[in-house]
Amino acid sequence: MQTVDKIKPCFPLFRDDDYKISLDAKRAQFEEMHPADKVAATFEWTTTKEYQELNFKREALTVNPAKACQPLGSALCGVGFKKTLVYIHGSQGCVAYFRTYFNRHFKEPFAIIADSMTEDAAVFGGQKNVHEGLANASKLYDAEMIAMSTTCIAEVIGDDLNAFIGNARKEGHIPDDFPVPFAHTPSFVGSHITGWDNMEEGILKYFTLNSMADKTPGKNGKLNIIPGFETYLGNFRVIKRYLKEMGVDYTYLSDPEEVLDTPADGEFRMYAGGTTQDEIKDAPNAITTLLLQPLSLDKTRKYVEGTWNHEVPKTNIPMGVEWTDEFLMKVAEVTGKPIAPSLELERGRLVDMMTDSHAWLHGKKMAVFGDPDFTLGIVKMLLEFGIEPTHIVCNNGSKKWAKAIEKLLATSPYGASGKAYPGADLWHLRSLCFTDKPDFLIGNSYGKFIQRDTLHKGPEFEVPLIRLGFPIFDRHHLHRMTTLGYEGAMYVLTTLTNAVLEELDNKTRVLGVTDYNHDLVR
Predict the structure, then answer these.
(1) What is the biggest distance separating any 2 CA atoms in the chain, rounded to whole angstroms?
(2) What's the rounded Cα separation, in Å, for the pair 124 and 136?
(3) Pick the catalytic residue: 4, 123, 130, 152?
(4) What is the pTM of this model?
(5) Does the active-site annotation cover 463?
């Protein structure tokens, strides 16, 4: 066994003989496993076309959906505002899940509080929890605003946040002027992107709905940027840099960049950066509002257009060459500011990189999974790079998303073999990777189990995972990278090309057998 003189991590610790013996005994005595040949035969069957057809007939079961629930998205939206405390009206277990999800992805503390609903609240309603929670939170945590949303338990019993918050003010639990914007975010419908959209609408509505009399679009000369559910911190930085280089004044309506990337300098920052309340109140005076993830922001778009009277430009997520061009030209059009020469140079460098790598990427087949705007942007880049997208899975994708993917695939010969799968999950994608094998899989960390399963069938069946998206748990610091703009396309291009070259090394490193391609000239 392990001793203090010889400490091992779990791998290779559990490969030691004493652990093997212990685990084998546990299986034999307690697990009542099926015979190994039956397990192997069943596994083999799950890799067949016959099983895939049955798999795609599933209706009442989802297996690894590659999405999270609404309040997780609302939490990310809330922390993007200055000194805002995220408050979840629901059970402690749900909030622990949200915290750990963000902790593992950002490698940072992520402050969320809950009013810890239990059985009595589920029977009698959770108003008492809200009143006590608001009273404690407003006194303890030095917040300037509390952004409140709900979980399943509160939604199932029909708790009314507007009434609860209003009653909390009447009874003196919080001051009348303390801001508590809210959103109802039932976990059993939508996903994390829906929750972000609901919370954004709730915050914008709270500060501007009843104060529009003196607001005029264009009055402050700024541009509003709404990021949507964004977990690449580099994406905030690159868009800010582009706007600064063009001389455009802007307001990010939810900006968690600083609080999710605080320095280790001896000071704990529960709050850092973020959009101020004054900036929210002034946002209707902007020239217009740009949505960086337009497919995921339906409620926010309707509010901005209907209440602020902004003509929200119809743009795509600024990923890849053409759609970054589109974004920058739209910024130039609405602000009257020319595109900076520095950005033209950056574009040229990206095109040069694409030319350099084209020989290695041309004709490679890659499957993709993730959120709607993200998958759309990745597919756009794959087509620009000469890669063939195959299976495009989006569990929280709508029919509108599927039509957008199909339209995009039709613009390039590289899209001929691609197909969109709205509502599909990772178990569906696993079947597709066995029956119509791509060269690589692009997605978040959960895709590693597909790589493991395909490898189990044999090295020739393995589909390597390229980690792009959210969440990334099993690699470090990728959340600081960039996927938007020319800079983001450079990162994605570098990641994809080096994955192709690494796989070539993996297959050609056997001395005297396959190493005729284990060369340095690439």
Answers:
(1) 81
(2) 21
(3) 152
(4) 0.96
(5) no
